[in-house]
# Entry
Amino acid sequence: MAQLIRSAMVKVKDQETESEGLVSLPTLYTSEAKFVHPVNAWFFDLVACKRLKDINSYSRALLAYWSYLEANSLSWDEFPPIKRLKPTYQFKFHFVVVN
# Structure
């Protein structure tokens, strides 16, 4: 199962004021302890570029989605032409049924 780990403090430069600040980011790892680059880059973008202060809901949602992908041996970047076979649609259906 995938895991979220809080990273150490990361420097983020404010483009408007040219000041730097330190923030702690959630970091997603696979069940094999591999860094999930696309997700973690997006977390950084949310904080550094979009200036979001709290991304906990995003990180929890992506943890649930990534765990679902791993449990069902699905790939996040393969999208068949039939909508119901896409991992995002399968997750949505699974989420509705479970909850």
Observations:
- Residues 93 and 99 are 10 Å apart (CA to CA).
- The radius of gyration is 16 Å.
